[in-house]
Amino acid sequence: AQTHLTLRQAPTEVKELSQSFDRMLGRLAIAWEQQRRFLSDVSHELRTPLTLVQGYLQSTLRRCQTLSDSQREGLEIAAAEADRTIQVLQDLLDWARLNSGQRHITLEAFDLKAVLLEVAILTPTYQERIIVDIETAPVIVQADRQCLKQVLIHLIDNAIRYSEPKQPVILRLQQQANWAIIQVCDRGRGIPEADQPHIFDPFYRVDVDRSRATGGTGLGLSIVKQLVETMQGHIVVSSTLGEGSVFSVSLPA
Ligand code: ADP
φ and ψ at 247, to 5 degrees? Predict the structure, then answer.
């Protein structure tokens, strides 16, 4: 095999190399698209019957008065598991949709403070755990309302899941120059420094067993990051192990 290129051979060799590199990139892009489509189709095919199963379980639990305690308990566990699996499938679908550019966003001007309060109040543990620490006047942003709600719901859900049941989750909002900054702060277990650069990667989980036990797929933050960036914003985390984490989302105000 030839190990050195002579000057005269170089252009042809370089051209061939560049063509084979292009071919490789093309094959990679096709493989990536096939993988994304497969994930999306499988998630969709599984979610539809599972939603039906969950519907039957819920209606049996509601309507059937003759169930014994153990039968009721069994059905409740099955319904909770179905619920968790549907959420995992929904994450996979969202992720696949975002990666195909199929999710379209609609930017409109609205008051971020009002949306933040709305999401906070709808959080199931609002009374016990959520502290809204907002002193600012309305903050008008140009964003997609649904995307923003999805981002906030996920960050608040994580803050709750990764901290002890009695610990508060604090929501802050401030405006700095042309940026609106939302902070979701918890006093949970924190994230090791080495893991912090990776938590926005798809499927990345710091503690796989614990994450699975709390219902995680490792896709949530990757979806959140993509949604925030689609709205021309950015997200960062600051966290200390054993003390808690702060997720800050900045959006153009
Ligand atoms: P998951 O569905 O596993 O929660 P995410 O993408 O939302 O996936 O988060 C990725 C990982 O980042 C989680 O598995 C968890 O280890 C870590 N993490 C996210 N939010 C927090 C938080 N508020 N406190 C501690 N760890 C967190």
Answer: -100, 120
